Amino acid sequence: MTIEITHTRREGTLIEGTSRGDGSAEILRLREYGRTQRQPFRWSRNLDCWYLPHSRDHATYTPSLELLAQRLRDAGFEVTLTVDNADRRSFSEAEEEREEKAEGRADRFGGYAASAAQSSEAAWKKSHDISERFAFGQPILIGHHSEGRARRDHARMDDAMRKSIGESDRAAHWTGRAQAAANYQQFRKDPGRTLRRLDKLRADLRAVEKWQRGESAKGFSRNPADPELEIERQELTEEIAHWEKVIKDAEAEGFKVWSRADFTRGDFVLYRGTWYEVLRVNPKSVTIPHIHNGTGKRIVRATGNQHDDWTWTAPYDDVSGRKSADEMQQPPQAPASEAQEPAEQSPAVEEPVPVVKPTAAAAPAAGANWLDGMALVLIASKGSSRSRKRRALWAMTRREAQAVCGDPRTSGRSYMLTWTDRPGTEGADWEWVPDNGSHAPVLNELGITPRREWTAAPQAPAA
């Protein structure tokens, strides 16, 4: 049977005519093909043939395919090789297909993430249900008839929890992949990134046009009669037109494309969240004080900085706003009730960012004893569900609750006592549980008589 090797820009490099076990797979899986000469061919169930990854929309490296054809012939196969680099699709068609595939990946990866999350939750619930047998720290009774079952339960708990953790990690992985795929179009059409891409494409187009004229570009020359140059020129022209339309659409939605004409020396430019005074206006950027001067400041002027001799360049595609020197002198005018102004019209703010010292929250007034307020003592089990109602043992003063919960005798291997003065609503957020008397010696030693009723009280004394 004849093996057909074909390459077009539209479909990429495909190999048809092979069959399972005929010996061709060992040759195709060698990492010696493609433009980098380090790629293997892969089998596609959708195409029902072998294909070379990342070969679409590119000219092939013909010597690589000729090497593959020769190897297959040496192995006893009849091989035909067809290369047509002129058969291509437009850039808009290729980009549209890439966006559709990204949407499909987002849906597929989202399903993987949901399945893994569901599996993780089921495994965790299984482990938690088994652990209820040991909620109060029941040890394994050596020699007792329950020893075997207890050890098996521990092993099942461990297996289930490890599975839960593994599935949770898998869910996080696929969630990230789904998010990345969903953001593909937004990432590709980001205006700042698109402007930088256009600069590179225009430089590439100028180089191709020089080569067509027989001139040197990028440090070397190419044959002006090479038909590949005309194909590259057409591709670059289409791609530039596509991304220029993206920028026009962004401008219609309010995006500002900054240029040299928008700035003069002495203006202020908003660069990565900080206003810098413009020292010099360049064709593709503005020169500003070094960004190290912007640490802890919102406005950086030309003088009076720690590093006045250092400068930085802010490219226009990374600029967010502009204000004149007179506008920067105006006092702030932004009432809290009004919507925030766009970046170009943001009010001036004094250079140092105010540092607010932390203060104690809900501190009691002078003369009031906060520790005499009421608190609820709760019992918490290791691995208990957050959605489960909290279990209350006693009500007592905060001072007594601190003493009880701080005693090492009130905590075990699988549980501990904690307290809160804001338990929420009885029945909805927490519930009373029976007191088995195991902590009575601690309560007696500390001289504490707990109560089994709760009355909500003010959280802080009145000022």
From TrEMBL:
Compositionally biased intervals (Low complexity): 329-352
Designated name of the protein: DUF3560 domain-containing protein
Sequence ranges of Basic and acidic residues compositional bias: 99-108
Annotated Pfam families: DUF3560 (PF12083)
Signal sequence bounds: none
Region of interest (Disordered), ranges: 89-112, 310-352
Superkingdom assignment: Bacteria
Native organism: Streptomyces nanshensis
